[in-house]
Design goal:
heterotrimer, A mainly alpha, B mainly alpha, C alpha/beta, A: mainly alpha, five-stranded antiparallel β-sheet, B: mainly alpha, two-stranded antiparallel ribbon, 4 strands, 68% helix
């Protein structure tokens, strides 16, 4: 830690000192990077950071990005980027050095320890830098390893800092230091300040202080803050668990909503539903392969593409197989099951048995941090929103459009609908295509969460049926409630029972529930004779 | 009247009787060929063939069990693999206990995997499995009890058709997940294996293998006779009535759920016996047997062979499995295409399976020849019609689209009764 | 009536005929004389394990082709016999029997999962076959008829933990695995090992998940909480196959970088990474006996041969492929040495045979049927390859029975006289669990 502090002080000092250091000295310091052991490299980084040299940032970033090489002949550090079979070299000032073969240069490898050092070095540089977010994360990285000697620096930055957000973090850091090292009054105010702060270092600092504190008055303040933290922690953990449940529910909902159309509205048991999802995921992969430069946009393109691919396959299945089997649901089940095997093997034959790498765009990575405990991962957040959008769109389609009217007419009374001039066989095909297309869209979302491989669909088929049956066949609203209920129930049970048992319990619950209400939670009411 | 139907049916089941004869012959010939002849002789059967054929016999018994509930009572269970596996586990537990001190950790009481998981005593549900009689009782009772519990709840609340299919699938899936857990005490993913002997006979000895084979053949013959007795009895008539129209049967005054429960439990027990015979022959039982795919595969054996005819189920099991053995050897990549295609083709064009094919063809010929006296129906055709799962559609080989689209997709319940 | 008779008699005739046909075909296969040396390949080409195993089938086929180009063995050509056990465990036993009895193969290369090996084991022991098993596994086994060319736990897990303790200063451990025998054993061994190294109980968290687990939110969040205690934390992952992609994705999304909580995996290699978006995974680790990035001439040759055999520059190589390579080379050398493909003489010739590793140095076959070979630690790079960050000085001897578990500490395997046993108890001087 001493070293990091030295760097800090060095950095601050540099503002005062003039730039009087020779470039050669920096090169001397950096030469250790070409050494073999990680200790050599660490020492070199430490030495480099003693200098305020623009090359530091280039070299360190280059190491992180695995682009920093050295020329074998003269050990000069260069940034190398691959171009075809050879590499384009630039020196650390950005001057181009031409193209060389791979054998002439050697990459400077880093491991986690070095990477950690580089990141903290870069963070230190950012502490006084122009980027607010970078300053914020620099303070947070300081919080991870608090030392009393940091206090003068923290106080200095507090004065200089203009952003309220960063200032607040700096105050928190100051409080952590003072809680351990300050006088009675400082400790007391720090303890009060840290109450309700959810970052792990703050919480841990309070807990440590609680064990060590002698002064009764300060201890009372600490106790109060700790109790407050515990309560907040509990609340946040519960919120986190709920979020996990909702996101699992959203996944189930997406997987099941297509089935809610084909099974729920049309009464067709489509065991190849999972494969429609898989086709959607593979479409995402293909789209990404076709537009390698536009990963950020790929999903936007993939959604309609997947809808079309799976939808077209759905229409094909309906026209080719299912229409011959209407009224014979158990046979439809068998035929579509066979179809699912064929589709799996087809994908395996075309793309190979290996999983395919679908890239997650930047905007879907990472998480939205509410506080130190609660962070909502973006991919799941978007999937929750997306699933509701899909359901809403479907609901509008079915209840507000002419096509929806036809679908409802055909399902309610086919003969009458025919008599009114509706081409019921066309409506069947389109409805089935719609359900399959929606499954394809689900595949796009799932490609961001799990493996894209030939078995993708199989993992969701049983869950999807459970959701639809539990919610009540023919009821979109029921499907939503069922998916969310099952997701949350699963996640609430998981901490106590473990993942497997939670899933088994949910399955058993559904099996028993079906005995009680054979038509699900929200069964369609009406006078139906079973035969 | 009903008596004369039964008698004439028995008389008519020539195929079944021939099949029984073949089974008996196999029970004698196969052991004979494998034990008497030496390797290299023309008629020598290696242990590969003995276990392979033995496996087919077990599958055939499972198929008969599935056919009993599906073909004759309209209950499409996608979870029969669970009963098969439970029977297998009961047998596996007996075989594990027989290993005794010969395990790798030489623990006299605990199987190796328990020693390994630091268990110090035998869990209660493993007690008694060192006794052959008890274990065999469990082979029947455990699947039977599960089927009773499940069937009691499901049939009482009138869960039928696809709903029943889906929750039976959920049942076997839940069991698979449970048995995968190492904490359950059934060996987790690895299951039970490394068996040494049964009733003191070395499992790797050709004689033991031959005996197990003969036993399987006899069990299949027995299962066939039992099912034939059930379906030809008055009870069997009620079952077929339930299959064809459950509500009408109920309105006539039959307690439909009791009939269904009875036949479901019997079928589960048969599946359990099949599993118990399967395990010592293949040498391993693991949670993979609970996989929903396995259950569905057994459905397709029955569908391919011809549901609603017991021998059809047996032929189907043999044909599909022989195909699988051959395909996975010759064209491994094509196996799933073939299996999947089989599902589609069978449901679309062979509603009565291969067994019904000849009747189907001759009917086609006949309808072309037209206007020949109908009353002179051949007995085979009459039989096919009686065991006909879908009386209304019997005349259609490839149904016309317009007419087929007519029963609305919405009317699930109506459809369910037709299957 | 006549028509009916025809029907039924035709059925019974067909039955009888097919029974006869079965009997005939089984007898015929024995009549062929052995003009080639048959190499059985027992890897799943369909089903869930096809993902991993298809590659190994191709590796064996490539090795056979190369051997044939070099003149075969003992003046005979090698003939591969490929079967597909379809990821179905009982089918593995059946296919093994088919290979040994019907096809009369001289050696089998095959299996991936432990359960498939356990299923095949009684068959190869009964028929005295020879199986080369090329995948890292949980140990606690040594069969007379199996040579284990993958890593035993002491050749993967323990060096990895040593590295993390030494280089990264890890003090707190999450042992996360899929709920089956390999993770269970590895974690038990590691737990015992960590405790002897002075790690307290509360600094070890163990978690098991089912196969193909896809919702990792709760577990990753637990890991995060566990890592917040202020001590450097690492995850030792024995998570299997398909469950890895969602696991690493969740890690990255919840903001756990390799610098904070590194994950060292024993089941993630180059081939698994080819299905990942590896950018967020940079810095996570894996421990193997081989990495494609290993710097050696032999390795470069091997990669070149593989990519031209498979016809794609994109295809990667991995550890089980090297294990297959070593196994095949060893078997070929032992056959030459024994001058025969007869199992017992090949087995005797196997002991002490050395074959160059693709990573440099030599692999040695020990009398416990396990290899001596080096252990490498690699860090994931953004291009889907590993950077080798650490490597044992020499080879590590594969230990069939770990010393870190009480029940196997006093067991040894030595298939040469005077012990000649796979699980010899040195306290009771007894050999148990053998079928012959």
């Amino acid at each position: 830690m001493k070293t990091m502090l030295n760097k800090l002080l060095g950095l601050v000092g540099l503002v005062v000192l003039s730039f009087g250091v020779l470039a050669d000295d920096w090169q001397q310091a950096a030469s250790g990077l070409t050494g073999k052991s990680s200790n050599d490299k660490l020492a070199a980084i430490e030495a480099m950071l003693e200098f305020d040299d623009p090359r530091n940032a280039v070299a360190l970033q280059g190491m992180l990005d695995a682009e920093l090489y050295y020329v074998k002949a003269d050990r000069q550090l260069v940034i190398a980027t691959k171009s075809g079979r050879s590499f384009l070299l630039t020196d650390l000032q950005g001057e181009s050095l031409g193209e060389v073969a791979k054998s002439k240069i050697k990459r400077i490898t880093v491991n986690n320890r070095i990477r950690r050092e580089i990141r903290s070095g870069l963070a230190m540089m950012a502490l006084a830098g122009p980027d607010e977010d970078a300053r914020f994360s620099a303070v947070r990285s300081l919080m991870a390893n608090v030392e009393a000697e940091q206090l003068p620096l923290v106080e200095q930055r507090l004065v200089a800092e203009t952003s309220a957000k960063v200032q607040d973090k700096l105050r928190e850091l100051q409080a952590i230091i003072l809680l351990e090292n300050g006088d009675d009054a400082q400790r007391q105010s720090s303890a009060e300040f840290l109450g309700g702060r959810m970052d792990a270092p703050s919480r841990n600092a309070l807990l440590r202080a609680q064990a060590d504190e002698q002064n009764a008055e300060v201890l009372a303040a600490i106790n109060e803050s700790v109790a407050r933290n515990q309560q907040l922690l509990k609340l946040n953990r519960a919120a986190e668990n709920l979020y996990f449940g909702l996101s699992l529910g959203a996944v189930l909902l997406l997987a099941a909503v297509g089935l809610a159309i084909t099974f729920g509205v049309m009464g067709v048991i489509n065991m190849a539903h999972g494969e429609m999802i898989m086709l959607g995921a593979y479409t995402t992969y293909v789209v990404q392969q076709l537009m390698p430069g536009h990963i950020e946009l790929s999903l936007v393109v993939a959604i309609p593409a997947a809808f079309l691919v799976s939808g077209a396959m759905g229409v094909l299945i309906e026209r080719g197989i299912i229409r011959f089997l209407y009224g014979r649901p158990l046979e439809t089940l068998l035929a579509t099951f066979g179809l699912s095997l064929v589709l799996q093997q087809l994908v395996r034959s075309i793309f190979g048995p290996l999983n395919q790498a679908v890239i997650t765009p930047q905007w879907l990575s990472g998480s939205l941090e509410i506080n130190g405990v609660l962070a909502l991962t973006y991919n799941r957040l978007y999937i929750i929103i997306f699933s509701f959008m899909v359901v809403a769109a479907l609901w509008l389609l079915i209840s507000k459009t002419f096509f929806g009217l036809q679908v409802r007419a055909v399902t309610q009374n086919r003969a009458m609908a025919n008599a009114m001039g509706i081409r019921s066989s066309w409506v069947d095909a389109m409805t089935f295509g719609l359900g399959s297309g929606v499954a394809g869209i689900a595949g796009v979302a799932l490609s961001q969460l799990t493996n894209v491989g030939p078995n993708l669909g199989q993992n969701y088929i049983i869950d999807s049926f459970m959701v639809v049956v539990f919610g009540g066949v023919g009821n979109l609203f029921g499907t939503v409630v069922a998916a969310m209920t099952l997701g949350v129930a699963n996640k609430l049970a998981e901490p106590f029972t473990g993942a497997v048992l939670a899933k088994i319990l949910v399955l058993v619950f559904i099996i028993l529930f079906i005995q009680k209400r054979p038509r699900g939670m929200f069964a369609l009411k009406g006078r139906m004779v079973e035969d | 009247m009903s008596r004369s139907i039964i008698v004439s049916f028995l008389m008519r089941d020539k195929v079944g009787n021939a099949l029984l004869a073949v089974l008996l012959a196999l029970a004698i010939i196969v052991p004979f060929c494998s034990l008497v002849f030496e390797p290299g002789d023309t008629f020598y059967l290696s242990s590969y063939w003995v276990t392979l054929l033995g496996k087919y016999l077990c599958y055939a018994l499972l198929a008969v069990a599935v056919d009993l509930v599906w073909g004759y009572c309209g209950i499409l269970s996608l979870g029969h693999g669970a009963f098969f596996a439970l029977g297998g586990y009961a047998m596996g537990m007996y075989l594990m206990r027989q290993i005794g001190e010969r395990g790798v950790y030489a623990n006299p009481l605990l199987p190796d995997f328990m020693v390994f998981l630091n268990w110090t005593e035998l869990p209660w549900y493993w007690q008694g499995f060192d006794m052959f009689g008890f274990a065999m009782l469990m082979v029947l009772l455990v699947p039977g009890a599960l089927a009773f519990l499940f069937g009691f709840l499901a049939f009482r609340s009138r869960v039928t058709g696809v709903y029943l299919s889906i929750i039976t699938q959920a049942l076997t899936y839940a069991l698979m997940l449970a048995f995968f857990r190492n904490d359950m005490g059934f060996g987790g993913n690895n299951g039970l294996t490394d068996f040494k002997d049964i009733l003191g006979f070395n499992l790797q000895h050709p004689g033991t293998r031959a005996a197990l084979f003969s036993l399987s053949a006899l069990a299949l013959a027995g299962g066939y006779l039992l099912c034939r007795f059930i379906v030809n009895s008055k009870l069997g008539r009620v079952l077929i009535a339930i299959r064809d129209s459950e509500s009408r049967t109920r309105f006539i005054g039959y307690r439909v759920e009791r009939f269904k429960l009875f036949v479901f439990v019997v079928s589960a027990m048969l599946a359990g016996v099949a599993g118990a015979l399967y395990v010592p022959q293949v040498g391993i039982i693991n949670p993979g047997e609970f996989a929903p795919l396995n259950s569905i595969e057994s459905i397709v054996w029955v569908a391919v062979g011809g549901r609603g005819t017991l021998f059809g189920a047996i032929f189907g099991a043999w044909m599909v499995n022989f195909g699988k053995t051959w395909f996975t050897g010759a064209f491994p990549e094509l196996w799933l295409f073939f299996l999947g295609g089989l599902f589609v083709v069978t449901t679309l064009w062979l509603p009565k399976g291969v067994v019904g094919l000849s009747a189907q063809l001759s009917k086609m010929r006949r309808s072309k020849a037209a206007s020949v006296a109908v009353s002179e129906k051949s007995p085979v055709q009459a039989q096919a019609v009686e065991a006909e799962p879908q009386p209304q559609q019997a005349s259609q080989v490839a149904p016309e689209p317009e007419q087929q689209a007519e029963p609305t997709p919405k009317n699930l319940d109506q459809g369910a009764a037709n299957v | 009536m006549t028509q009916q008779k025809q029907h039924s008699s035709r059925w019974s005739k067909q039955l009888a005929a097919s029974a006869m046909a079965l009997a005939l075909t089984s007898g015929m296969s024995l009549a062929q004389a052995a003009e080639t040396i048959k190499v059985g390949v027992l890897h799943s080409l369909s089903g869930t394990m096809a993902i991993s195993e298809t590659t190994l089938k191709d590796t064996v086929l490539m090795m056979v082709e190369e051997q044939n180009k070099a003149g075969g063995l003992l003046g005979k050509k090698l003939e591969p016999v490929v079967v597909d056990p379809a990821s179905d465990w009982p089918l593995f036993a059946e296919k093994a029997r088919e290979l040994l009895e019907k096809e009369q193969v001289d050696v089998i290369f095959g299996c991936w999962t432990s359960v498939s090996r356990k299923s095949v084991l009684p068959v190869v022991e009964e028929l005295n076959g020879l199986l080369f098993y090329p995948v890292q596994y949980e140990g606690e086994e040594s069969s007379k008829n199996v040579f284990y060319t993958g890593a035993a736990p002491n050749q993967q897990a323990i060096p990895a933990v040593d590295y993390l303790m030494g280089e990264e200063g890890v003090e707190r451990w999450v042992l996360a695995g899929t709920d089956y025998v390999y993770p269970r054993t590895t974690n038990k061994i590691l737990e015992a090992y960590l405790k002897t190294a002075g790690v307290a109980d509360e600094d070890i968290m163990i978690s098991y998940t089912p196969f193909g687990h896809s919702d990792w939110q709760t577990i990753v969040s637990d890991i995060k909480k566990f890592g917040e205690a202020g001590k450097k934390t690492a995850v030792v992952s024995t998570i299997n196959g398909d469950a890895n992609v969602p696991f690493y994705k969740e890690l990255a999304n919840q903001g756990i970088a390799a610098e904070d909580i590194p994950v060292v995996a024993f089941s993630v290699g180059e081939e698994e990474l080819s299905g990942f978006d590896t950018a967020p995974l940079v810095g996570h680790l894996a421990a193997w006996n081989y990495f494609q990035s290993a710097d050696s001439e032999l390795n470069e040759e091997f990669i070149g041969a593989w990519q031209s055999f498979i016809g794609s520059e994109e295809r990667v190589t991995n550890d089980p492929m090297e294990a297959t390579y070593i196994g095949f080379k060893m078997w070929a050398e032992a056959v030459e040495k024994a001058g025969s493909v007869e199992v017992d003489s090949v087995r005797d010739a196997m002991y002490g045979i050395t074959v160059p590793n693709l990573t440099g140095g030599y692999a040695v076959m020990n009398t416990n049927h396990h290899l001596t070979k080096p252990v490498l630690i690699g860090e994931i790079q953004s291009d889907g390859q590993f950077d080798v960050v650490w490597q044992t000085a020499g080879g590590v001897i594969g230990d069939a029975w770990t010393d870190h578990l009480p029940e196997s500490a006093n067991l040894v395997a030595d298939w040469t006289a005077p012990i000649s046993c796979g699980n010899f108890n040195i306290t009771t001087s007894q050999c148990s669990g053998q079928n012959y």
